[in-house]
Amino acid sequence: MKKLFTLSLLVFATAYTQAQQKTLMGFTPASSAKQLQTEQQFDQSLSAARIGETLKDLSMYPHHIGSPGGKVVAEKILAKLKSYGFDAHLQPYKVLFPTPKTRVLEMTGPTKYTAVLKEAALTEDPTSSQAGQLPTYNAWSADGDVTGQLVFVNYGLPDDYETLAAMGIDVKGKIVIAKYGKSWRGIKPKVAYEHGAIGCIIYSDPKDDGYYAGDVYPKGAFKNETGVQRGSVMDMVIYPGDPLTPGIGATENAKRLDRKDATTILKIPVLPISYQDAKPLLAALEGPVAPEDWRGALPITYHIGPGATTVHLKLEFNWDMVTAYDVIGTIKGSTYPDEWVLRGNHHDGWVNGADDPLSGQSSLLDEAKALGDMLKTGWKPKRTIVYCAWDGEEPGLLGSTEYVEDHDKELQQKAVVYINSDDISRGFYHAGGSHALEKFIGEVSEGVTDPETNVSVAERKKAHEVVNAANPKAKKEILDRKTDPIAALGSGSDFSSFLQHLGVPTLDIGYGGEGGGGDYHSIYDSFADYQRFKDPGFVYGVALSKTIGHAVLRMANADVLPFDFRSLSTTLNGYGKEVIELANNMREATAMQNQLVKSNAFNLAADPTKRMAIPVAKDEVPAIDFSALTASLDALKASADKLAAVMNTASGSTIDHKALNETIYKAEQQLLSPNGLPRRPWYKHSIYAPGFYTGYGVKTMPGIREAIEVRNWPEAQQQIAAVSATINALAAYLDKAAM
Q1: Which residues contact 248 (CB under 8 A, 6 or more apart)?
Q2: pLDDT grade for 691, boundaries at 50, 70 and 90
Q3: What is the CA 422 to chain-centroid distance, rounded?
């Protein structure tokens, strides 16, 4: 035993020595050793038990924006930050926030049914019966009192309406019922309205979110028959934040739009319901049997309608002005006080919000506590660290967007990076953000240990991806890659306005994949649910604190900021290949379809007893000139390579690199349009746009893609020129930085 113990000590000592000798991105060898010691000191202050205590305390009562509980949570966070040594304050904004006044959903024919519209209180979940909980609803629905035939529209995406059209079914003047899933919820009523529907109902099918996946709550983690997903349906494709103050901070005296002129508020009434309430509505539908991939797991035959099934939907809202309380805490930098490293997570929930958002918020506060402990020893970061707890994220990124709009000029001058988190659970590390930070955050993830497997979170993530890759080729590509790619960010959390409005370099980091369940935005998003199913022991809360804490500390102390634009170049080059392939595939598919139309194959293959439109011949896809795009991508690669060499040389030097660093962190702003409006994601001549039609993901080079998809070839050439100009602007900027 003694020999084994001695061997263990030697292994530990060797590993420790290697860690001390490791040179981190952006640091000299000497400063790397000091930085790693700082991170070890930081880690020693973190506490899983304290994260659990914080989570339990903050999720004790409902705390949506504008509620008494919401202000209490903000004040508790403020008190904690002050006690840790942060210079902290509340930052209030006056914003519009609708809450339900009237909610009626009833089937009026062929039989009668009145929807319950209420989740069941459970003895196993002590907070599920509290007063002050928001009812089940979708914020930013229109007021409305409508009656009409019911039509089932699957997930309510554009492709689903194409299927309906092929079947000869029109939703104009009707009320649609759509399943949650496959897209951001706000797309479903928007697309329904565009097709003439007068109302929209959204439900969670048990195949996607219920007993089909596993035991339901409280026995298991998954959605029970009364659970309902609340949520915003704001048209954030136009702009996020307060609907009445687009582009400016919603301060007390800000100039506001009249509500009728706010373009992000929907035009038809929208209501979410449980699968308990959806079942009788769907069971009553007649008309064609739904296609196989439309069918859910309810014990019925899924029909589409329309027919004798009619519903009455009546919604009225209180359109109140409420105060959003952001909490801002600062540790002033010792060397570069005007360079800011920002870290944020929202604190408002739809109800008690233990998972979303307080799991991430509790980890953030433990990071802050660890930083505070180091402050007491005399430690100071080189750059200013700003910790932010946002209010009003759930209704539409209200608190963060208003802060960004209120402080836009200062943030564009000073913000080095914004690092975001949201809800987390046990499972796998994931990151998205600015691709110039891909190598940096990959290095951070290699130094954090996964609490379930005791390997690095980077190694576990890679193993998960390899095992689940679709084919041997994909598996080999994952095994061979040297840098773990990060996801492109669309929208859906508080990073959005920093990245897309201001061009601030951004990371969004989390853990999950093994804490599944149907508590999302329901009364069951509680401490009782979280500690049983999401992160027992709160060990992934500590993993998040370590991951983001190390990232914050390295960004705050780096000699040369750890950006590498070669990763961005590689990523954009991949997007370019994708849009070229899209055009080529469409050309081949069109030629084949036209051949089949000419040979009468579609008519011969169709079932004559089913009413389906037969495809018609389409115009051939012309050759599209992508030379401007490929030339701009080549220019970006050359510029990124040149700057990387300059930064590598600078990292070995002990001189002050302030001018170089300032140039580096402002590079992302080259993706903004000349007049200051964002190119990404709400303008088509962009690199990225939120993939609202497909979850919170991203559409890459969206203007080019959309033009090709709708077969507008002149527009496609214009978008290629616009995107090429954006990439060329960034390349020229990097060339100048490398001088």
Answers
A1: 254, 255, 405, 406
A2: low
A3: 9
**C-alpha to C-alpha distance for 617 and 121, rounded to whole angstroms:** 57
Residue 671 amino acid letter: L
Transcribe 424-473 into DSSP letters: --SEEEEEEE-GGGHHHHHHHHHTSB-TTTSSBHHHHHHHHHHHH-SSHH
Whether the CB-CB separation of 195 and 267 falls below 8 Å is answered with: no
For 365-383, write each residue's pLDDT tens digit.
Answer: 999 999 999 999 999 999 9
- Coil, helix or strand at residue 145: strand
CA dist 197 and 174 (Å) reads: 5
* Buried-state track 567-605, b at ≥16 Cβ within 10 A, e below 16: bbbbbbbebbeebbebbeebbeebeebbeebeeeeeeee
| Burial of 727 per CB tally in 10 Å (0-12, 13-18, 19+) | buried
DSSP state of 351: S
Q: Which of 616, 684, 427, 609 is nearest to 536 (CA)?
A: 427
For tokens 């089932």, what's the residue? 152
222 burial class (0-12, 13-18, 19+ CB within 10 angstroms)?
buried
Nearest Cα to Cα of residue 306 among 509, 167, 433: 167
219, 618, 643, 722, 724 from 629: Cα distances, Å: 55, 27, 21, 9, 5
Could you tell me the two tokens for 204? 């969670």
- Give the whole-angstrom CA distance, residue 567 versus residue 437: 8
Question: Hey, is 149 helix, strand or coil?
Answer: strand
Check: pTM over 0.90? Answer yes or no: yes
For 101-130, how does the pLDDT look when each residue is reduced to its tens digit (9 = 90+)? 999 999 999 999 999 999 999 999 999 999
In 357-410, the DSSP E strands lie at: 383-390
CB atoms within 10 A of CB 407: 16
Euclidean distance between CA atoms 324 and 90, whole angstroms: 10
Spatial separation of the C-alpha atoms in residues 71 and 4, rounded to whole Å: 55
Longest dimension (CA), the chain: 84
Separation between Cα atoms, residue 311 and residue 109, nearest integer Å: 7
Query: Taking the mean position of all CA atoms in its chain, how far away is CA 617?
Result: 39
Q: Distance (Å, rounded) from C-alpha 309 to C-alpha 1? A: 76
* Alpha helix (H) residue ranges in 486-564: 495-502, 527-529, 539-557
Q: Which residues contact 6 (CB under 8 A, 6 or more apart)?
A: none
Burial class (CB in 10 A: 0-12, 13-18, 19+), 113: middle
Instruction: Write the CA distances from 450 to 59, 355, 517, integer angstroms.
Output: 26, 20, 22
726 HSE (CA, 13 A, CB side): 24
Q: Which phi-psi region, left, alpha or beta, contains residue 247 (left: φ > 0; alpha: ψ -120 to 50)?
A: left
**Gap between the Cα atoms of 335 and 223, Å rounded:** 51
